[in-house]
Write a structure and sequence with these properties.
This protein is an alpha+beta fold. It has one domain. The chain is built from 4 helices and 4 strands. The protein has a 4-stranded antiparallel β-sheet. Strand 2 and strand 3 form a beta hairpin.
């Protein structure tokens, strides 16, 4: 998963733990890990949602100023299905140790 540059630090420090994505189909799965710049994120849940579910609180929780700010970044391409992804960040030292097991 790719995150906007302005929220990457907040993903790494655990402040942002969810993302709203507009996709044509689900692209991540629960329990999977995806590389990001300085570590990995592990998917905790994936939930289909509707446009009315994107509230100002959810937008802020996702690292944006509000709903319009989130939509400017998230709504691009042809994806019409909306997913709420919850995740946690795994620092590189932790993810490397867990792979060695």
């Amino acid at each position: 998963m790719v995150f906007s540059k302005r929220i990457r630090d907040r993903v790494r420090n655990g402040e942002v733990t969810c993302s709203v994505r507009f996709w044509t189909c689900q692209r991540v799965r629960i329990g999977a890990r995806y590389r990001v710049e300085d570590g990995e994120i592990e998917i905790d849940s994936v939930q289909p949602i509707g446009l009315p579910d994107i509230t100002p609180m959810l937008a802020r929780e996702s690292g944006f100023l509000g709903v319009l700010d989130l939509l400017k970044v998230a709504k691009h391409g042809q994806g019409e299905r909306i997913y709420l992804i919850r995740f946690h960040f795994i620092p590189p030292s932790t993810s490397a140790r867990q792979k060695d097991r």
